[in-house]
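can u pls check wat happens w/ 3-isopropylmalic acid
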Amino acid sequence: MTQMIAMLAGDGIGPEIMTEAEKVLNTLKSDFGLDVELEHALVGGAAIDATGGPLPAETLELAKKSDAVLLGAVGGPKWEPLDISIRPEKGLLGLRSELNLFANLRPAILYPELANASTLKPEVVAGLDILIVRELTGGIYFGQPRGIRTNENGEQEGFNTLVYAESEIERIARIGFESAQKRDKRLCSVDKANVLEATEFWRNVIDRVAKDYPDVEVTHMYVDNAAMQLVRYPKQFDVMVTTNMFGDILSDLASQLTGSIGMLPSASLDENNKGMYEPSHGSAPDIAGQGIANPLATILSAAMMLRYSLNRADLADKVEAAVSKVLQDGLRTKDIAGDGGTEVTTVEMGDAVVKALLAG
Ligand code: IPM
Ligand code: MG
């Protein structure tokens, strides 16, 4: 049966990188028997400009009825003056929450060809393979109450709420443990249990759930130490599980270990493995329209989509192999050009992946 993919390009470099991912998907359709239909819709700033809001009802409806969502990126300076409740980012957060995409998987893998593209010494990052499991629909991103108000001294104050229900912690913990079981069987839970009750509770729930996974070695780390350990000796980590905000921060940090945030895909899944797939990077308005954005994170996100939501691990392997091939061939977009190789544009990189796919 034909599966439907919602294609949401968004803003900044979003449309450029999505065009390249679409080429790859169309090649899988024409030459590898992938039976999908691609439907486009607006999200983020592009949707604000066209409809007045970052997540139009049609887009949400399309995302809900699709088998998977592929998203480029949202946001940009143009929409920053808007009220926070209707900014482009709310489109993304609305999709995550409306689709119950509580489990965000952000793998940080160093391609051997890019060992010199990292700002860290090659021996620190060579062979790096970390999976960050970030809770995505709770915590301080969604906690109520929130806002900006006048306090009893007549002064303005901003406030947010960090809250986690036991069930929210337990379900992301299980994703963390199950992911670790498929890998090196080590799970590091990251919290700030020495200061924040919400994450002291997080730690207790992790310890309780751990009893169901005796084959996984579980450790706990405070987030400040985790940030330091990630740049000191990142290879000590296998799977890290953490809250929405800590995961946001640590996944950007981890991406730079791999040479460039332009390489990192992500999957956001619900209970049934329905998911939204997006590069871990943002809309990079500073380089939009210049043809220099790296489309590989989006192409690798499409590979994750094939694996987790479309049940085509065979094609995911092929796409990932094609990406490795172009890197081996020395093709580099500007962000990963540090170690020499041939600098190519966004479009040339997409074309090269398609070519490698067809040749492989
Ligand atoms: C991410 C992004 C988003 C987040 C923004 C764009 C809302 O930084 O996916 O990591 O904070 O989750
Ligand atoms: Mg982020």
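The chain has a mean pLDDT of 96.
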